[in-house]
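User: Could you go from structure to sequence for me? I need the amino acid at each position, not a summary. Structure tokens:
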């Protein structure tokens, strides 16, 4: 028991383990995630739906989306943005590894009679002959990836962007980093039964990696017959660090906002959104 508690409380090397697939595709958790996505007021898996409406309208107008334009949504979840963007007439592809979210996305597109191509896969393996006018990655998903995964993702974006294409993504800022604290807690049926329909103990250990501006929320979920650990990493950026990272990978930051709805950039916001173009 003592050894197990040592393990639960152990700080792993930064970005040493990637468990995003476990978090998003474990059958029970995936259902819970979809409930979060579809809760219009709860900004947990997707943002509030009033914001998504505003954001999709802004993206459609800003990037002049419509017939003849090709858009790729990386980590599209249940297609809340993909559907809204496809309503402009743009040709939209959504990529996600959650079968559960994509089933919902496909069904809603079908009900509306809107054509959207949904691909179930790890976006780090994405490959297509198509070239996109706009690639979006929304809800700070860029930040959960390690530096080498982010370099790989940017190379995938580069390969799939049309010459005049743009990438739009959002990231956590240093303000968000400052607000996080290292904590260790546990709770029976942590997060109101989010992790399992059965009884369990959920431990959360939050670690900060000051030299790298990374936060880890490490969840250890112990059921009677199963134990698992989910590692949720968050890289935090300022404009200089993001700019230098994308520049090392063939992009430049062309525009800067406080969010993906085109809110004016503020140095004190917890997130920022950027538009990238090829160098
Ligand atoms: C925070 S949610 C955001 C969903 C959507 N962008 C939105 O804002 O409504 C992240 C999404 O990315 C997907 N995802 C995370 N890592 C992925 C990966 N490596 N490959 C494919 N999908 C991934 C998850 O399944 C989830 O649907």
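Assistant: Here is the amino acid at each position, in order:
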């Amino acid at each position: 028991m003592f050894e197990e508690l040592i393990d639960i409380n152990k700080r792993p090397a930064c970005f040493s383990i990637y468990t995003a697939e476990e978090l998003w595709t474990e059958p029970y958790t995936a259902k819970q995630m979809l409930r979060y996505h579809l809760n219009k007021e709860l900004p947990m898996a997707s943002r509030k739906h009033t914001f998504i409406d505003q954001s999709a309208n802004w993206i459609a107008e800003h990037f002049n989306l419509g017939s003849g334009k090709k858009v790729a949504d990386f980590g599209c979840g249940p297609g809340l943005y993909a559907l809204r963007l496809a309503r402009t007439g743009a040709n939209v592809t959504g990529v996600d590894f959650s079968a559960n979210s994509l089933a919902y996305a496909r069904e809603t597109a079908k009900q509306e009679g809107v054509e959207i191509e949904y691909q179930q896969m790890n976006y780090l393996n994405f490959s297509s002959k198509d070239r996109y006018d706009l690639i979006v990655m929304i809800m700070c998903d860029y930040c959960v990836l390690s530096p080498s995964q982010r370099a790989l993702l940017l190379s995938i974006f580069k390969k799939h962007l049309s010459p005049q294409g743009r990438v739009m993504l959002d990231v956590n800022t240093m303000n968000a980093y400052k607000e996080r604290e290292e904590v260790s807690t546990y709770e029976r049926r942590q997060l109101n039964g989010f992790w399992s329909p059965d009884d369990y103990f959920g431990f959360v250990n939050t670690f900060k990696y000051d030299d790298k501006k990374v936060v880890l929320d490490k969840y250890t979920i112990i059921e009677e017959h199963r134990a698992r650990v989910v590692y949720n990493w968050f890289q935090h950026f300022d404009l200089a660090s993001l700019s230098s990272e994308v520049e090392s990978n063939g992009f430049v930051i062309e525009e800067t906002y406080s969010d993906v709805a085109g809110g004016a950039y503020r140095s004190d916001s917890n997130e920022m959104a950027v538009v990238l173009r090829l160098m």
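One structural detail worth keeping in mind: Residues 95 and 119 are 5 Å apart (CA to CA).
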